[in-house]
Batch of 4 targets.
Target 1
Amino acid sequence: MAVREAEPVGSLQEVKDAGLDREDLLGIYRNLLTTRTIEERGHILYKQGKIPGSFYTGRGNEAAAVGVGTAMGPHDVGTPLQRDIGVHITRGLEPWRIFAQYMGRVDGPTKGRDGNVHLGDSSLGTYAMVSHLPAMLPVAVGMSLAFRIREERRVAVAWCGEGAAARGDAHEGMNFAGVRRLPVVFVIDNNQWAYSTPSYLEFAVDHLADRAAAYGFEGVVVDGTDVLAVYREAKLAIEKAREGGGPTLIESVTLRMEGHAVHDDAFYVPREMFEEWARRDPIERFRSWLRDNAGLTDEEEDELSSSVKRLINEAVQRAEESPYPEASTLLDGVFATADELDAPHHR
Amino acid sequence: MPEKTYLQAISDGLRQEMRRDPRVFVLGEDVGVYGGAFKVTLGFQEEFGPWRVIDMPLSETAIMGGATGAALMGMRPVAEMQFADFVSCAWDHLVTVAAKQHYRSGTPIPIVLRLPSGGGFSGGPFHSQNPESSFAHIPGLKVVCPATPEDAKGLLTSSIEDPNPVLFFEHKHLYRRIKGEVPDDRYTTPFGEARVHRQGDDVTVITWGAMVYTANEAAGRLEQEDISVEVIDLRTLIPWDREAVLSSVRKCSKVLVLHEDTRTGGFGGEIAATIAEEAFEDLDAPVKRIAAPDCPVPFSPPLEKAFIPQVDDVVTALRDLAAY
């Protein structure tokens, strides 16, 4: 089974055939802008000392995240990672709660118990990552196992970085999913650098998607800066999984445009590499596609960017108004109580 | 009431829960057609089908991570490690994901992980360990170690009901050796309530799992010497019944803490420290500990016998304590 390299997305008609109307396209653009603006603002807040700990951004990965998030169905679930704030935005997590999380406030999804991008909201079908990447990949496989056991038409999406793909969790999760043809889609965000380690020191195959053949399912490589191509491939894979066709491994290729976290200036990435990928900036790329193919006007652009700016300003203010957790709550929630199992998804 | 082996009690308890609650399912290596390495799930796949009794690839990470994901989606997985020793391969998913999930995200992880543990039959370094203290140290996990068939069934039912990850240590040496009366009806045995296995007045032994029987045999021998020994079976380590321990210590004033796990960092140290903090004034002798020595579990019978605490060791220690 050879790996398939996805074509770039072409005309508006092609996109309409894939199920997106013009309003959807503007929504995608707005989600891309929101994602980037959150991270740019977060970086400033971090430098101002308003965000404790560390700060990670997904610059360059916005299209990959928003594209997959857009393809997920309302009852699908996923375990997005540290470059995937775009997934949370697309699933409907309000930006002020993301800032509250960054700042360690009680209104963040983890109420200050975990930091930075370790967040999820089960009511939106997202589950918080852990630092031990890709530990959430087998967890997503387990979610898909539950769907299979109950014969529900739901799909789980498991994210993994190209660096974490070297770990046994990825192998065990993909192998089991292949054996049982589970309704799960694996998305490898290949941003070419695992902290300072380049891909050629992480894996010896041409494409990580080549590994799919070893697990008995399809692999596809997609340009992660092309939001519509990512959407199309994710949609195909998710609907295939929903119909009982088993897993797909999507390798989405981008460049991590900043350091591993904001303390890291990424001196080890060749300058020309940054310059080359800056010309393929996913947001700029989609903006010009919208202008060329969907008649995006100056007025619409102005309106979108000013409304995103307003949203983020209000979000930061609201997050700053959120209190810090009381020290007296330190031990709350180490164990769950029986009544919590009455939550709808546990019944 | 029917008499059952410890193993049959576990099997019956699990089957009863699976009949009662469609969310309960089993996953592990060779649990299906083969019925599990120890035959706890024998016949389950015929009754419940291949999607509720899931033969997993040899992938402890996928078993534990898979159970976690299924639990997040509302299932009640009962996962099996073929031997408790192999839980090291699932450490990350227990400790990094499952144990911390509720604290940081508020989503309960109702999982039972069955762990056939313990030595006594030349299983060697990788089929004999008692790794309970490693997990008792991790906030967010519960640790259960039944000693009797009745408790094995009742505690398994409670474990499946519990909204947290529960490590269910079932001692392999008790599987077919120990029989007892087990009610047929469904019942639960509460966590954090110790059981007085044998009443006594002179010396208390605090223990759990297979060592309950070692302590009881030693106590029987000492009866002839007019030394009255109380044996407390903790039943669960997280949570553990401090009150039962302290009140027995107050009564007898002398105490031996006994476990099959190795000594340094073993859970006995926590019990001894608590007694020293809370019941110092009630003690008439220093707290004594008997545990396996700090080495891997050896294979050859004379070495293994020297490793696992024996009745003679316990008799000697209790005699010394009584005479103190």
Target 2
Amino acid sequence: MSAPAASKVRLATVWLDGCSGCHMSLLDTDERLIEIAPLIELVHGPLVDLKEFPEGVDVTLVEGAVSSEEDLHKIRQVRARTRVLVSLGDCAVSGNVPAMRNKFGAQAVLKRAYLENATLDAQIPREIIPRLLAESRPVHEVVPVDVYVPGCPPPADLIFSVLSDLLAGKTPNPAAKFG
Amino acid sequence: MAQKKIVIDPVTRIEGHSKISIHLDEQGHVEEAYFHVTQFRGFEKFCEGRPFYEMPSLMARICGICPVSHLIASAKACDQILAVRIPPNAARLRRVLNLAQIVQSHALSFFYLSAPDFLLGMDSDPAARNVLGLAAAYPDMARDGVRLRQFGQSTIELLAGKRIHPAWVVPGGVSSPLAAESRDRIVAQLPGMLAIATRTLDWFKSEMEKFREEIRSFANFPTLFMGLVGENGGLEHYDGQMRFLDTGGRVIADYPGASYAAHIAEIAHPWSYLKTSFYKPMGYPDGVYRVGPLARLNVIDSVDTPRASQEWAEFRELDRGPVLSSFYYHYARLIEILYGLEKMEQLLSGPEILDPHVRAHARVNNGEGIGVSEAPRGTLLHHYKVDRDGLITWSNLIIATGHNNAAMNRGVLQVARHFVHGNRLEEGMLNRVEAVIRSFDPCLSCSTHADGRMALEVELRNAAGEVVDSCRTR
């Protein structure tokens, strides 16, 4: 990949507790994404082989709610290293589907999957893997968020419009795209 | 399984969505390897108390890559709760939708996720070994991938009104018929897509010779295979019987999805959020099996479209019995793309596809429903119980990646044994460990949660359990 030019926006995408649909909707911008690619330096994300979340990121799109200790650690690091943090999609914005477990509690959902619905060696996994937080929470309850893009997933056109605004240095207002 | 205990602090150092640990014996030989999946959401529990007719749309949210698979398996379970036979054209339209998704998902797996390994090389610079690097070095191939995925996604939109998480598939059928204009727009694109599928398949077959080492070591061992089969044992993704093959390729079970519980059981592991399914009569681990494109092409007796049928016959000549190397999942995926396009052409060609009768209406007539279909990655099963008001009281989901969990773990061990020697880690080895998992195209979003190209952290431990080396990708 080419060296960062001064004019390029350092963009990252992050995936917490979501279904990947928001990232797929970003890919659904299809060839338009290729058109704006020269304006972007993609520094972190599911399709890129870069290890660490880097310092000095201009814009980070966050998909998913904050559900595990790993998510919590990650989002704090992302916030500290990002100038404009975007909650992308309903799970990041409101907790949405992952937060549906909150009324039952983490133990109850684990019990159903691993004690009741396993036929052999029924046990709740606890080695190596990150523990679930007591509640799954939207991103802004954990760290400050700059831009909210709702939708399940947000339509590709909306994501593209927000991205275009951010690349042009404007503050997007996704709410204005509705109604 | 000499060394079962792994001591890695569960909170720190887990930056990615999954993780692999490799154990060495005192001589520095690989003794054991584990594939850990690190996220969990709990759909089986939090759907309780909600009306069954919400299930297709809710369950679609399990996965943004294959929401259509969950829509279909869920709606089929709900059809049984209504106790209706859905109109023939509803089933036809669901089939077209399912095939469109298989095409787009396979295109994502092949072009966006794995093609960088094939074209840029397993040992190439990891900084450029991605779809952007592919687009820069092989723009034609990258464009083919974008177009094929776009075709699948736009077909889903033309049918269902939305590319991701459409609400069109409902208990009793689908919510609206197909417009002639939409049909024409889909059909008009098919010749171009068939050309992409054909040239990609021809290219891949010509390249396979370069991957002899990978073919030999990528989860290449006997297992059972499981998948749906249609009439006359034909390739089938929407309906049909569930079939198990034994390691010698003999059919050992052909049964309706409704009796899955007699055939499939799940084991939980302390070290992963992903449970492993196994063939119940044979127990664990003897009953370990594989699902997905490779398994589907192994379990069937025929393919009912002309070009894919030829390709299938050629594919089956790779081995005397079932095709065993999981590297061939990629090959099978390309044959299924071809099949999906041909089959869509068949289904869309007759006037009946425009039949406006696409939904059966009923109230709750059954306390239970089981829906089975083939997702891109393998057999998917949704099982619900409801009370008299149709509120969910219990659910069980068995998902493609869980069926493949044991094979993925063994595959990681096999690759590690093949490529890891002594106390040293190389990037190329890491990428192959990633690549064996990638060949299964696991959907950890589905089974728990994760992304297509997973972050991997690999630790090498000696017999005393001490970390001697570690490496992370992405």
Target 3
Amino acid sequence: MTPNEVRVVVTGLGCVSPVGNTAPETWEGLLAGRSGVSRLRAFDVNGSQPGYAAEVKDLSPERAGLPRRKLKMMGRQAQLAFAAVQEACTDAGLASDAAAVDRERLGIILGVGMLNADVEELGRAFHTMQAATGPAFVQSAFNRAAARELLPLWLLRHIPNLAAAHAGIALDAQGPSNTITTGCVAGASAIGEAARIVARGEADVVIAGGTDARVSPLAMLRYRELGWLSTRTDCDPEDVSAPFDACASGFVNGEGAAVLVLEAEPHARRRGARIRAELMKYAAANDANGLFVHDRNGQALRTSVDRCAAALRDAGAPVDCVFAPASGVRPLDSAAAAALSGVVGLDGPIAATRSLLGHTHAASAAVDAVAAVQALGGRRIPAVRNLTRPIASLAFARGGDLPRVVESAIVGAYGFGGHGAALAFRRWRE
Amino acid sequence: MKRRVAITGLGVVSAVGIGLEDFWAGLVSGRSGVTAVTRFDPDGLPVRIAAQISDFDLRRYADAPLEYRRNGDTCRLDARTQFAFAAAEMAVRDASLERGEVWTDATLYFGAGEGDNDVPLLGRIIMPHATACGCAGGAVLGDADVRPFGLRDQLMEPTAPASLLAERYGVTGEVTTCLTACAAGAQAVGEAFRRIQAGECDLALTGGSHAMTAPLDLLGFAMLSALSQRNDDPARASRPFDRHRDGFVLGEGAAVVILEEWESARRRGARIRAELIGYGAANDAYRVTDMHPDARGARRAIVGALNDAGVDPSDIGYVNAHGTSTIENDRAETHAIRAAFGDSAGGVPVSSTKSMTGHAVAAAGAIELVATVLALETQVLPPTINLETPDPECDLDYVPNTARQRDFDVALTNSFGFGGQNVTLAVRRPEGWQR
């Protein structure tokens, strides 16, 4: 965003998370230190570990505005995104007023995760195959069995950009649309893409954020085998997720969706929208170290956060807090701690909401963005739960009232593939 | 003032040909890349044809790793990632660039699909627990050892090719992956173009790669009634705009495009193959699989690219169509071109190279941009092959069956995707670079 471009403001929030099915519920849950981690409900792990996850609970299709006849062909991440987008549009006053925005200048950009195959469906196919040709895998027999057992619309639930498509159709959003797949950073990347489009004047309003639903058997199997998923059983499930703690044993798998309504400031002003915050800066970088190896100093995260902090300082704003992308995977937490150790001007706490939300992957940075915007103007930042032996001497959020009102917040994102990104929000001022 | 953007490097991997020379020779001669599937046994699938790349040997194109090792596990990199390595290396060399410092602040923006599911490996995991009612979800978590499933599965992530390219070339700036179905490759190029225009960077490595030709891919699209079932005549299965078409043919491949800020490309004496001058993107917001009956998103993408480029429809000498060979796309696209071009529609040649390459999904838009730039450079239009009996509702000049010479300066390429994503790019011959 260059200085002569239009200011990008936040006029709506939507969030479906393990601690609440709306943005305000999520924020209240985070401030109350309520953990979203509990016994796994989506399927029975039958004694295997982990038997817990941070799931979205009791999301009612009707309440979320989900069309029943479409549910069949919507994957869970599309469903979660649909609910979050509906909430954000209502919050922004776009739902009630058809004329609030020119639909050709309304866009939607979501960061999404990779959906694994459904073991239940494939299980039927493999069983039918074995009934026909015996226990060994035979490709042609599998082909026949799968053609018989898989639902005709099976593929639609697995196409990543359909999360944005379903939500966009409901809104008649005919402007720019994109689907970003930068792993755990995707929610931040999507917000960055949207901010550029609004700043360049290519759309008046873009709904942007992330959605992910990896509480599935194959995703859990994957993360467990990679050594990233905690399987500890010596404590209550809600005590497992311990970002920045020396006893961290991996992340707790989570799910959720969160979006911001980003709007060109003159447009928001013209239609009398309530402006909740200004998005001051988006920055991103890559470690260029390959897929699994993070820079020891969290270089991509550090670069991104430093640029955001500099943008706040340049605007005369303080740097009041940072939402950190730590999830309880120790090498990553160490890299994040290193990256956040020297943020110039930071005078406030570092939060780690994954201690309560688990790791919501492609949604995680967007959930933090929704939290960060709600923090502005208040005096409270969610405390880091389960932090007893910090791995670094940083000012981690401990709860209680801050000495002054939060004017700004930085959201950091960092993950698989060396991606780093950060967002800087500031309390709205004319 | 927007900065100008030069295309200085191209690389392509397609079933029609690998490398610019082979690829272009194949397209101009009307060679189909569609064959019977041989990579796995397709017996039992309703569709047993695809434009697959046979005998691909990455080491012939790049000294890139063929496998990934982590904690004692080893996994072969999937086809999509290997194609990306090859196309990137070709494009970087084509631009007379090397790995290293020049890439530090570059943008890497890639349209990539997910890696393919390894069905036998999934079978190993699921079969022990499979019943007539399926497979109780958690049962698979009871098994101690299914390695290297975790690594294999993680390498399927859509961002894997881009992140590995970032490592290879040393891109420490922003690395982005988008996956907007069949529009992804073109959208990646369009967004990278904007970043150079806006001054965010001077150099970008962009494009797409995808290999959606595995058993579950063929089956999934076939069950949506999207694919041609002309199994006994593969080379004639992809027949855009022909009355007897019966769906698209899945393909695979990759294309990488090097974009540079115009003046910096000139300063280093780079050969400028074309100027990227326009990008239009619009959403149907209609249905997830069907195009809007008036092709409203497609029309606005085309008009958007024309306006962005500051050119009139009468300036356009060639349109590389999305042209999938489905009744719906071909008619909607024809309608969109008519609506966007008005009186000029009848005079503009429109061809679908998917008639030869098949549909490489997330890579398609990038592969077709390469075809469009080569058409500009050589002043030859690649044909739409298998166009024997035109659909009466498709009444444009589709360059049927034989390549054609034409003097022209500006071309468009369309990419429309599932979910209602529509992207059009516009390219122009560079001044000062003549044949």
Target 4
Amino acid sequence: MIYFNNVSKVYRDATALLDVTFTVEAGEFVSIVGHSGAGKTTLTKMILAEENPTDGTVFFESINISALKSNDLTKLRRRIGVVFQDFKLLSNKTAYENIAFAMEAVGKTEEEIASDVPHVLELVDLSHRLSHFPSQMSGGEKQRLAIARAIINQPELILADEPTGNLDPVNTHEIVQILKKINDLGTTVILTTHNRGVIESVNKRVITMENGKIIRDTKHSK
Amino acid sequence: MALIALKRIVKAGFINFKRNGSISWAAVLQVVNTLAIIATILLLQAVLHSALTQIKDKVDVVIYFTKEASEDKIMAIKSSLEKLPEVAQVTYTSAEEELRLFRERHSNDYPTIQALDEIKENPLLANLNVRAKEIGQYESIANFMKSDNALVLSSSSIVDKVNYYQNKKVIDRLNTIISGAQEFGFLLTLYFILSSIIITFNMIRLTIFISKEEIGVMRLVGASKMHVRGPFMIEGAIYGGVATLITVILFWPATAWLGRNMTGFLGINMYDYYASNFLQIFAILLLSGIILGVISSFLAARKYLNK
């Protein structure tokens, strides 16, 4: 599903990625682990075409992501659900509206929105927060809302960039369980983290990065 | 489908305007400033126009005829003058009428009337008072009087004098002042309108700058550029609409005060002018406000929409 082919990213004064090659198959749960500055976020940004490689190519199935025009990029992003460490919720929209916005973006009808949004909020245990703004919610609730937004359009891939970075252990565990459940239902998940505990509890394939390079790619086993 | 998208964009624009609170009102007040400048300039132009019309009305050229000139010949010149495209009006005053008017004007001036009575005969001359459409056209009318066309119709000998040549300096100077005032007014208008547009544009850009991260998030969750930009443009239109309403309401008491206290100085009753041209002024302000709001939002949002 995702194919990085000898990808390098060089900024003016630093190399973020160096000759990175790996493949993620459909339905996989891949954790990308590494210290800050290892290149994890740059890698996720390339899948979303927020950054383009200096060298090499990134494919989503047969699509060369960096060659996409604006309209096609919008269509690609609708196939990916994103979850960020800092949640990136729309602050002047309620929980309901944050999710409705993602549905409106793909052209869902009002009826579909009215029926699906309460359902997904129930899945992440936020039914009671329907009309609350992000500023009125806790970190764990915000992240659950971000996950609800990411999965509402049933994307093929969930990209979670340090989703537990700002959460306490209890909320971290909850988020990991939700992501595992999403993966069990058939959605590919790419999770970046620097938290060893998260990797242990996921217990799936782990790609370890250091200084922009992949130094290990292993199927995790306890 | 497109209709649903449009409905959502409009709804989102209104909700954003409401939820942005003080930021929205700061932008509205800035648009009010711009519209107030445009409205003031519209009213000042009316004052300038009225002042210039009054000055222009005071300028004329009078052709005095000799005592020998027959009324027929004078009337022939009058009708040929009236055919000129530059001429707005030609008025004939006979020598007798001129005398009657002179006596009327000087009815309280006993020495003058006495002197006139002693002369016995009428010293005043029949004349044609010519008003041009524009001040700059008097010279060509005076030239026409000297030309063959005029002479064919009558005889140059019947023209005693044309006061244009005596007043030429004053008329030329007035002409320079009037066209200077018009040019200066235009440049001043341009400066104020441009500077307030730039300030408003930057104010709206600032309101969108606050949302720049959210614009990026919207794009990441798959929203099209129009879906992201649309609500900002609707917000911009709302700034323009609300600002127009505030501006026209503020100008109501302001022009009423000017009408009561400054009509003599300004030459026109500002309140009457504002009331009788209200729809026109409202339309100009509304259009300016909406265009300013929408274009500023469009350009400001574009900057953060590239990816």
